[in-house]
Structure formats: structure tokens, C-alpha cells
Amino acid sequence: MKLTLPTAALFTAIALTLTGCAASDTGSSATAGADTSLSAVEEAGTLTVGTEGTYRPFSFHEDGSGDLTGYDVEVATAVAKELGVSVTFEETQWDAIFAGLTAGRFDMIANQVSITPEREAAYTFSTPYTYSTGVIVVPTDNTDITSFASLSGKTTAQSLTSNWNALATESGATVEAVEGWAQSVALVEQGRVDATVNDKLTFLDYQKQTGADGLKIAAETSEQSESAFAFAQGGTALAEAVDAALATLKENGTLATISDKYFGADVS
């Protein structure tokens, strides 16, 4: 989620450019020499996490000015507790978040970072803590659309540059361009388009916030996206410790509880 592949490639290029000035002063990066990624966090007693702070429901401020909260924030906080350290969040714009990781401003990114081959070549990832699919959202009384193939000849509302626009178009739909989810779902609710294609987490969040009365999921993609914490390349020791923490949080139900709070379903 979050980024299209061309954008991910751009950040990969930025990260590779900045690798030479990685943060030897913090010891949080393991781009060269011994892997001190975990020992540096343990010695500092703090896990520093990069996040946007503007990406609801994953990382945001309640009412715009309240405390930082969200699904990713709570999962990262729970991970830090398992590691036996405190957690500090460094908020930054998405466009700068990978450069900040490479420069050692933070130990990991918690911002629904999708695992892609391009990113795996440049960063180290934890095991996924979020799984999602693409979905078709239609009015509850719609019986014509039951698969992506049945979008042929239908009208959907999509952002022009999104992957979902491409999927709807490839499925044969006529796309009405909108600026984002809010406009898309409004057009479906008003009956001005037949459907919209989007990420399942977006719909679940909308359903959690509004009830989404009169809407349903008609079909889902067979492929899932996987989101994980991102670390500087070579930060294996910290990534493995976070993996162990995530496994514990999965087993004791903490991830499911956090997930249900934000999405009304277990997406972990």
C-alpha cells in the first residue's frame, strides 16, 4: 500500500544515494561493519520510530492536534514494550521518510510500508503485521457485480494515478476520475457510479467510522499486499528482535485486539 512502484523506485534511489552518510553516530544503522542495530536500541533504552502522523487510521493526531495515535503507532508501541525499551516517534513527511531511515534519524519506519522487491533490495523488513486485498465496493442491493470480470461495462470512481484505477480499467470499467476515497464512496452511495475499487483496509476503516450502511464488498483480489516495519539495510539483529516481538503479540492476541479497534477485523 501507500506507494506505487515508480514512487518506491524513486525512494530507493534516494536511499542508495544517502547510504554513504548513514548514521554512524547513532549506531542504529548496520550498513557497514558489525550489526549494532539491536544493541544500539538496547543501550539507548529507546526505539525511535519514523512515521507520518497524518495517515489515518495508521498514524495520526486525534482531532488534528491530540496525541499521536493509530494502528501502526499502537503496534510499534507494543513491539517496543516487548523489547523492553521505550518508544519515541519522529514525525516526517512520507517523501522524506526513507531518507530519514537511511540517515539514522530513526531505527525503523512504522507507516504501512508495503514490501516490494525494489524496497527489499534497499532495506531490511520485519515480518508483515498487516495484510490486505483490493476490493470492489458496491451498494448492498447490487447483484450485477460479483467479480472483477463483471466490472466490464460498469462505471467506477477512482483516483487517476492509483493502482486501483488501473485495475478497474483493466477489468473493463469506465472510470470517473475523483480525488480520493471520500469522493469515490460518495458517488457510489449516491448511485452516480456502479462501484469503486480500493484497498480493503480503507473500506474497513470507513465502515468502522460510519457504519457504511448501504454498502458491501462485492469481490476481493486473490493477491494480498503485505506491510511491515522497515529498517536500514543490514539491520538484521533489530529486525529479528522485532520479528520475535510480533510473534509474541500475534500469539497473545495483542495484534488482533489492536486491529479490531481500528478495522473491526483482524488484518494482522
Helix-strand layout with pairing:
Layout (H helix, E strand, L loop, with lengths): L4 H14 L18 H8 L1 E6 L2 E2 L3 E3 L6 E2 L1 H13 L2 E6 L2 H9 L5 E7 L2 H4 L2 E3 L4 E3 L1 E6 L15 E5 L3 H8 L3 E5 L2 H9 L6 E4 H11 L4 E6 L4 E8 L3 H16 L2 H10 L5
Parallel strand pairs: 1-5, 1-6, 10-11
Antiparallel strand pairs: 2-3, 3-4, 6-14, 7-14, 8-14, 9-12, 9-13
Helix pairs in contact: 1-4, 2-9, 3-9, 3-10
Account of the 3D structure:
The chain has 268 residues and is an alpha+beta fold. Helix content is 38%, strand content 25%. It has helices at 5-18, 37-44, 71-83, 94-102, 117-120, 163-170, 181-189, 200-210, 236-251, 254-263; strands spanning 46-51, 54-55, 59-61, 68-69, 86-91, 108-114, 123-125, 130-132, 134-139, 155-159, 174-178, 196-199, 215-220, 225-232. A hairpin with a 3-residue loop joins strand 2 (54-55) and strand 3 (59-61). Helix 1 packs parallel to helix 4, helix 2 (37-44) crosses helix 9 and helix 3 crosses helix 9 (236-251).
Question: Would you kindly provide a brief summary of this structure?
Answer:
This protein has 268 residues and is an alpha+beta fold.
